[in-house]
Amino acid sequence: MTGNAHFYATSEDECFVQIRKLISMIPANNTTKAEMIAPKQFREEISPYFNANPKKYISALVSEDCWQATPGKVVDLVRNLGIAAGGTVMEDCRVLEACREGKYTSVLVQTHDKKYVEYRTEHFVNALGSGAGKLCDSMGIDAGLYPVRHQAFITRRLPMLGKHGTNLDMLIDRQDYKGFSAVYGQQIAYTGQIIGCASPKLDAMRIDKNLKVNTKAFLEIVSEMFSEWIPDLAGVGIQAVWAGYYTEPRYIVDPELGLFVGMRGHGFMLSQYIARMYVDKLLGRPVPEYFEKLKLNGPGLSEKAFK
Ligand SMILES: Cc1cc2nc3c(=O)[nH]c(=O)nc-3n(C[C@H](O)[C@H](O)[C@H](O)COP(=O)(O)OP(=O)(O)OC[C@H]3O[C@@H](n4cnc5c(N)ncnc54)[C@H](O)[C@@H]3O)c2cc1C
Question: What is the DSSP string of 166-190?
Fold first, then answer.
């Protein structure tokens, strides 16, 4: 368990207004704890190394009991659950094309040893992440998906920077600034490294570029933001940077069409839960009303639903 601190620059910030509204709606007996703190409390409540004069912000929302998971362990668990239930995991295979014939889907797969195998199934799920759009195109489904670059960095090992000598909690700035819509990061408790990301605002316009390359703008914004928060970080070396794909523009979860795509920037956090609903829907169990909105022809869910 750990905490989060969201910084706000102005009281007109739409996110700030929403959060204020949400806090006022939390019933008194709710165990969720979130609190607005003033800049003068940042050193005490966030980090003793925090900028002593943080002019950029009017307040921060500190929420407690947030949790973080290790993706590798989660993926391993999901695979093992599948195997225990009688499933098979095939490594290093490539789905080449798929085509629907009535209630069946034929899927052509190239296997690890370069054999071509055609599967015919009543339940095919396209959950190919950044490769999903191409398969949709080959099936004549116009999903309008596109990959967007998302960049990350990790520092060298550092002493614990959080309050009471613990690791630094997740810090988040959600301003629309220099082409990014959020900068965030946290300190890994086991190694002391800070791992962070910046979410792109403009990358949809750059999809024709090589998305695997990190940008100068990314390195500049994370350096600026992290050293604004904790000035001592200005001299700290970055150990590695990398970039991966988000699939935009929206979640499309549609059991009738076999689509589980467009997981965007929250896919690790939310997709396991949504996948469970997907199975419930296939089995005829009740699903929440918003699940229907995620269909290809549905309106989707607004970005704010996740904030
Ligand atoms: C740098 C970065 C940081 C992120 N941080 C967070 C975070 O903090 N929290 C969060 O919730 N989400 C985060 N995300 C988003 C999250 O990773 C995605 O939303 C999520 O991984 C999407 O899951 P998926 O299963 O739909 O697709 P993926 O995880 O992309 O999985 C799709 C798989 O299909 C494979 N594939 C593609 N095409 C084919 C093909 N033709 N044949 C066979 N296999 C194929 C791919 O190789 C891949 O293994 C982050 C993403 C990035 C890039």
Answer: SPPPEEEE---BTTEEEEEEEE-TT
